């Protein structure tokens, strides 16, 4: 969209929920509008206020505005990275001094024809850029199963960090941080716990109500977990017969959570649809999902999000989700582990003392007992590490040395050239934990690191594959700023996680939801890789392909595959799945 003068042109991805309020303010100042869209409000806001307009937007977005008169391009990404933005600078590498979270303000001369940006890697790859692999990014991928911003799988393609903007003009390229999560929330200072609950109730209700405004059919994901159930409960107070959607696993009861989703749907009389997914359905969805992934990304639950998004899009255009709740309120199992390790006492000490037993017993994610043993061993191993290394280990599936051993290192200098950069990137991610060494610092790192690079990326990638818009009420910046400033004890204590969330909204939920054990959105990787995907594994990880590719160590891959078929597969299924995703991507885009 261009303004009437033709000087400014915008391309926009996302939604600004408070655009009507901003439009009213601009109209009072004499501005005139020619449409009823938030796109025009974003454009006019930038024309009037420049980069300061970003602070006025409540929503999720990535947009670019070109000023023809100044020959200047302005590109911005939302506060928490709900919408993606990639770019290819004119030459590999970044120049600049200082910087935060891995991306420094930088300047260099830029030719307009040299700069590319997009929401997806496949769009960048359509242009004549170098496909030179970033091997440090590959090492990060082998540990995490995704590649964190600001880096990508290619050396000369970067990801704009959340809350940052880029300015490109005849003088050069600048990257600046426009949003900083406050260290303390004025609204949360000196409140009693009851007052904290009241404030959270007001903020989250307002966020949900804001995200229910839509001129197209709207629904909500309902997994049966606490987060999505609270969003549905609040949404049902403002929308009659809210449409809700769940995935069920009729032939895999250990992964099935429809009982809990149905209880919420029944309580609020939603128009509820359960999409039953069989093992054969999942397998049939694997290759289309891998084909859509344009940068290696191996969170296996993307398969489920893809299927849920496809089915949901057949009935609605917009869906609410509960993403962000775990990161904000200490809902993951690793948060409980971190809390217990920091608290100390006989229980963590006993788990550590029995470490040899956990190592000897069979472990996998696909049975209650074997998954418990896997968690106990992981806890015992993590408890021996300093807080920053513990955080890094609990984020991924392999140690740094295990990841490095996966590469073919024919050049003996390669490890010494890769490790310093790998350690530097890791130190940037864990810097807050090193400096503060608190559980709150780990939660905040999750919000800035795991949430945008894994969880939000997964949902955006798979929902956009089906043109479904997903809105995340927990990530309204008013909610985030309030919750992150709350003391740890408001979120977790020895007996409960998500304490304030449960105490504030628990009365809205069926009782069985509050006592149920937490389960992730998982697929049965171990069984797949041992049976259904054996042929694919032999093809993509077989010696012939590995030797021709010349990237990975055949010996290391062989050992990992042997572990998969042992009685202690551990995290081998997730690591092998990550390799399969990478190999499929390599064959599709680089071979």
What does this structure look like?
The model is unreliable at 92-112 (pLDDT under 50). With 591 residues, this protein is an alpha/beta fold. It is built from 27 helices and 15 strands. The chain is 48% helix and 12% strand. It has a five-stranded antiparallel beta sheet, covered by helices on one side. Strands 11-10-9-12-13 form a five-stranded parallel beta sheet, sandwiched between helices. It has a domain at 186-237 and 256-267 and 275-329 and 447-509: 3-Layer(aba) Sandwich (Rossmann fold), CATH 3.40.50.620.
Proportion of β residues? 5-15%
Number of extended strands? 15
List the strand order in the largest sheet.
1-2-3-7-8
**Quaternary organisation:** single chain
Q: What is the CATH topology classification name of the domain at 186-237 and 256-267 and 275-329 and 447-509?
A: Rossmann fold
Q: How many strands, what sense, and barrel or not for the largest sheet?
A: 5 strands, antiparallel
> Which descriptor suits the 3D outline?
globular
- What is the gyration radius calculated from CA atoms? 24 Å
CATH domain class name of the domain at 186-237 and 256-267 and 275-329 and 447-509: Alpha Beta
């Amino acid at each position: 969209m261009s303004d009437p003068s033709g000087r400014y042109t915008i391309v926009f991805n996302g939604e600004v929920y408070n655009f009507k309020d901003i439009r009213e303010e601009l109209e009072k100042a004499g501005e005139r509008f020619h449409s009823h869209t938030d796109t025009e409000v974003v454009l006019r806001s930038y024309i009037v206020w420049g980069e300061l307009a970003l602070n006025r937007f409540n929503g999720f977005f990535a947009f670019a505005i070109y000023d023809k008169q100044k020959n200047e391009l302005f590109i911005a990404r939302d506060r928490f990275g709900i919408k993606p933005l990639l770019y290819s600078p004119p030459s590999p590498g970044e120049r600049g001094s200082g910087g935060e979270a891995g991306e420094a303000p930088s300047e260099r001369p830029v030719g307009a024809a040299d700069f590319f940006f997009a929401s997806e890697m496949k769009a960048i790859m359509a242009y004549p850029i170098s496909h030179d692999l970033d091997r440090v990014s590959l090492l990060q991928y082998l540990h995490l199963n995704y590649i964190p911003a600001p880096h990508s799988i290619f050396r000369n393609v970067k990801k704009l960090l959340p809350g940052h903007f880029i300015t490109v003009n005849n003088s050069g390229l600048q990257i600046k941080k426009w949003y900083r999560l406050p260290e303390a929330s004025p609204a949360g200072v000196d409140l009693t716990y009851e007052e904290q609950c009241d404030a959270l109730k007001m903020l989250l209700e307002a966020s949900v109500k804001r995200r229910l405004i839509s001129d197209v059919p709207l629904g909500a994901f309902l997994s049966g977990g606490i987060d999505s159930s609270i969003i549905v409960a609040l949404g049902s107070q403002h929308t009659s017969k809210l449409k809700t959607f769940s995935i069920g696993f009729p032939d895999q009861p250990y992964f099935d959570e429809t009982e809990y989703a149905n209880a919420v749907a029944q309580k609020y009389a939603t128009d509820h649809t359960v999409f039953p997914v069989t093992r054969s359905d999942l397998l049939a969805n694997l290759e289309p999902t891998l084909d859509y992934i344009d940068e290696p990304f191996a969170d296996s639950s993307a398969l489920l999000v893809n299927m849920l998004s496809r089915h949901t899009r057949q009935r609605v255009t917009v869906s609410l989700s509960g993403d962000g709740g775990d990161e904000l309120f200490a809902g993951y199992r690793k948060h409980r582990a971190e809390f217990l390790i920091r608290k100390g006492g006989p229980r963590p000490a006993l788990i550590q003392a029995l470490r040899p037993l956990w190592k000897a017993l069979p472990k996998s994610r696909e049975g209650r007992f074997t998954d418990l043993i896997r968690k106990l061993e992981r806890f015992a191993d993590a408890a021996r590490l300093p807080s920053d290394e513990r955080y890094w280990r609990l984020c991924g599936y392999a140690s740094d040395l295990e990841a490095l051993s996966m590469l073919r290192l024919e050049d003996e200098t390669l490890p010494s050239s890769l490790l310093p950069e790998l350690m530097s990137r890791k130190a940037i991610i864990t810097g807050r934990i090193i400096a503060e060494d608190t559980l709150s610092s780990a939660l905040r790192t999750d919000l800035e690191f795991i949430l945008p690079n894994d969880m939000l990326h997964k949902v955006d990638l798979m929902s956009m594959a089906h043109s479904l818009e997903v809105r995340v009420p927990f990530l309204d910046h008013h909610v985030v700023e309030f919750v992150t400033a709350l003391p740890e004890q408001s979120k977790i204590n020895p007996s409960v996680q998500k304490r304030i969330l449960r105490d504030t909204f628990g009365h809205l939920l069926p009782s069985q939801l509050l006592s149920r054990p937490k389960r992730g959105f998982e697929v049965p990787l171990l069984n797949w890789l041992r049976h259904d995907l054996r042929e694919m594994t032999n093809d993509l990880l077989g010696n012939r392909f590995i030797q021709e590719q010349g990237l990975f160590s055949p010996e290391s891959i062989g050992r990992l595959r042997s572990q998969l078929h042992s009685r202690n597969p551990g995290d081998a299924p997730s690591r092998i799945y990550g390799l399969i995703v990478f190999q499929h991507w390599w064959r599709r885009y680089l071979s």
